[in-house]
Amino acid sequence: MRKFLMASAATLGAVGMTGAAMAQSTQGAVPMTPSFLGGSVVTAPTAGPGANDNNNYQAAMLPGGMANPTPGTFVIRLNAALVVEASLASSSFTSYTQPTAAVATGSVTAAPGAVASYATSGGTYKQNLQSFMSYARLYPGMDAMATNGLRYGAALEFRENFSSTTPGGGNVTSSSASGNTSTQTLFVRRAFIYVAGDQWGIVRFGQGDGVPGIFDNGVTSMQSVSPSGGMNGSDVQAALPTNSYMGFPFMAQNGIEYGNQKLVYLSPQFFGFDIGLEYAPANNNAEENGDCTSGVTTTPAALGVTGVNASTCSTTSSSPLASDAARYTNQYEAGVRYQGTFGPVALLAHGTWIGSGIVDYTGAAPTVAANSGKVGGWNGKYNGLGFFQGGAAVTFAGLTVGGLVSTGAVNNNGQGNPQPQGGVSQNAYIVGFQYSNGPLDVGLAYMQADSQGSPNLVGVSQRHEWGINPGIDWKLAPGMKVFAEYFYGQRHQGAFNFATSGVGSAAYNDIRAQAFIVGSRVYW
Questions:
Q1: Which of 51, 88, 184, 488 is most buried, by the most CB atoms less than 10 A from its CB?
Q2: Domain 209-282+328-524 in this protein, CATH class
Q3: Are the CB atoms for 125 and 170 separated by under 8 Å?
Q4: pLDDT in tens, 222-246
């Protein structure tokens, strides 16, 4: 789904504010009486409602869709977006024949050092090329200024969740449309508070974007070239099986980057430069499982694992469980950004170093089931994060050209996973352009990543992935867009089965996927 970029969204009410924009009446109509509950105190909606806005994204307030608070006032917002889409999609899994025998997954361990397997149901599965999709987002929040000039506020982002209670995942849990809607719930995606001052900077604390995401803002990572967020888990990819397209290899507006609890500081700008610092003790929210007790957890029998002794502690630093080995600790980020204009040309450039510790895995090295064949020499351990992400973009006469690179100790086996010890470093880049002319936006991006991929294939093979993503959208009316988007991508790793995540197989080592969507987005 779309990872929305910096919000410049509609203000539904401005408590205590004078000069809130009034809805304009049409000729011959009776002007509305101001009423917060009636919805007649509004500002014009803009393209990107979200938890991030022009008041909380850097030290000084920016002009934008959200009203800037004045001393002693609050700006209250309750923005939202609803997207409906139709898609045509195909991949190497459009017609898939699943073997009857058990298949090693390499992702769940039945015991330390043993890779579990699950029982499969043999037969051929096929997918329709066409589908309809929709999703909703809610963005409540507030921005305020005290009488002494201190700025502060809070932001939330709620998303529609598509859950499943069946073993092995999947969204469809009922043959009834009514039954399926009951699995669609809301969950918290972003939640943070902030305090800021023009002279000393801004501090953001909570579940929100870190330094690389804020500095990039979806611009150098080309997420704005398509209406649904580019190749960062965008809607055009939602029409495809998850393992048919590459994970987004950048920590920029990416859930793996903004989903944990962190403390972020951004300095004021000096001659166009500002710095960013961040610290996160873990890759999670300690509120959800911070009791730090141990117990027996029963996992679905279809995964072949029952009665595993599993830790529930967010602050785990050492563990014999293979499931804990890839958890990073004490993540830190430090970056610098430049924003400037030279006549009609605007320049954005930034770079961030991302590092961390890692949970010390004390269990045995993994082994692979007999039917998995070829395996590497991986010891079951990972390195802490240690990589650079940086990019640049130039804008002139409505045309933005730019790109982003990521290189170092990280792995695109999913998104942003730690590098397995002995594995190769990741090298990834994305380049593209976007052209804006009034209500029209068109763009195209190309992305490529080379990384270790499957840890079980350390010393055997590496992963190579690429994709291309053109898109176009048209502002049909205030608060409404129509759009079209296309994606094509390929994935390859020798001896890795992308269908089963098993290793040592010559099947499904090369995957292709493509999708086309048209849709409409209404936002306020």
A1: 51
A2: mainly beta
A3: no
A4: 987 666 677 888 888 888 888 899 9
